[in-house]
């Protein structure tokens, strides 16, 4: 049973460009969250999607946007990239109604902005 | 606002010994959940253990146990019989507020503790 799958694993972009990261949740999971983890820091919550709608958002600018598809997969889009956007981007999923265990995380996409 | 504090940037432990990783939290909510995750160098966050704020007994999962002291707002992770494969970054995290259906329930993470298991 595949867990959370993220693509690509690594990405290098130039400042000002736009990037799209992709996530397939674990089978049976319908809620997807995105986190940004800067080097040496804990993950920071970006937003969460359920039923194709953004349900909760962290303290990130509008340059960060997302989407969830009917098959529960999700995309994270970042526009006008800044050097400070360089980080590991983690996707996490969980099944609705099962709260007493942890979210399942993917291995992340490491984004480098140059 | 929620806050998770992990005061140990790095810890060393001998193989087969037990180790405690500290975590304190701050929240005004009565209902919350506490998690511990392991992050090896590969980057994936691996769920270890969960403790609900209303759980009366400390959570245990194999070699992992959570020492939950609600009055002191601490949720320390205890790893027994350490193994070389336990070397990794460990994060404490909290789910805010009451359980929400259909979304919400973000996790707030601490800054992590780097654990190194030595022979």
Tell me what the structure shows.
The complex is a heterodimer of chains A (114) and B (119). Helix content of chain A is 0%, strand content 50%. With 114 residues, chain A is mainly β. In chain A, the strands form two sheets. In chain A, strands 2, 4, 5, 6, 9, 10 and 11 form a seven-stranded mixed β-sheet that branches. Chain A has a four-stranded antiparallel β-sheet with strand order 1-3-8-7, with no helix packed on it. Chain A has strands at residues 5-7, 10-13, 19-24, 31-37, 44-50, 53-57, 64-68, 74-78, 87-94, 104-105, 109-113. The radius of gyration of chain A is 13 Å and the shape is globular. Chain B is mostly beta strands and 119 residues long. Chain B is 0% helix and 50% strand. Chain B contains no helices and twelve strands. In chain B, strands 2, 5, 6, 10, 11 and 12 form a six-stranded mixed β-sheet that branches. In chain B, strands 3-9-8-7 form a four-stranded antiparallel β-sheet, with no helix packed on it. The radius of gyration of chain B is 14 Å and the shape is globular. The interface between A and B is medium-sized, with 33 and 29 residues.
What is the arithmetic mean of pLDDT of chain B? Answer: 91
Count of helical stretches of chain B: 0
Count all strands of chain A and give the number. 11
The span between the termini of chain A is 36 Å
**What global shape of chain A is seen?**
globular
Radius of gyration of chain B: 14 Å
By oligomeric state, this entry counts as heterodimer
- Spans where pLDDT lies below 50 across 5 or more residues of chain A: none
User: How is the biggest beta sheet of chain A arranged?
Assistant: 7 strands, mixed
Beta-strand residue percentage of chain B: over 45%
Cα shape of chain B = globular
Task: Indicate the structural class of chain B.
Answer: mainly beta
Q: What is the helix fraction of residues of chain B, given as a range?
A: under 10%
Percentage of residues in strands of chain A: over 45%
- SSE topology string of chain A: EEEEEEEEEEE
């Amino acid at each position: 049973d595949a867990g959370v799958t993220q693509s690509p694993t690594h990405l290098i972009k130039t400042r000002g460009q736009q990037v799209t990261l992709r996530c397939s949740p674990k089978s049976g999971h319908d809620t997807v969250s995105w986190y940004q983890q800067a080097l040496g820091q804990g993950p920071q919550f970006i937003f969460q999607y359920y039923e194709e709608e953004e349900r909760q958002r962290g303290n990130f600018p509008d340059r960060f946007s997302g989407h969830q598809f009917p098959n529960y997969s999700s995309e994270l889009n970042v526009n006008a990239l800044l050097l400070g956007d360089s980080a590991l981007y983690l996707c996490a999923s969980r099944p609705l109604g099962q709260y007493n265990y942890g979210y399942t995380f993917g291995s992340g996409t490491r984004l480098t902005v140059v | 606002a929620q806050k998770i504090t992990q005061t140990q940037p790095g810890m060393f432990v001998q193989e087969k010994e037990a180790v405690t990783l500290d975590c304190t939290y701050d929240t005004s909510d009565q209902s919350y959940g506490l998690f511990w995750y392991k992050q090896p160098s590969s980057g994936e966050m691996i769920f270890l253990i969960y403790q609900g704020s209303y759980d009366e007994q400390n959570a245990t999962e194999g070699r992992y146990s959570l020492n939950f002291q609600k009055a002191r707002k601490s949720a320390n992770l205890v790893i027994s019989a350490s193994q070389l494969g336990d070397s990794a970054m460990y994060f404490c995290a909290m789910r805010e507020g009451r359980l929400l259906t259909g979304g919400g329930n973000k996790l707030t993470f601490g800054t992590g503790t780097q654990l190194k298991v030595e022979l």
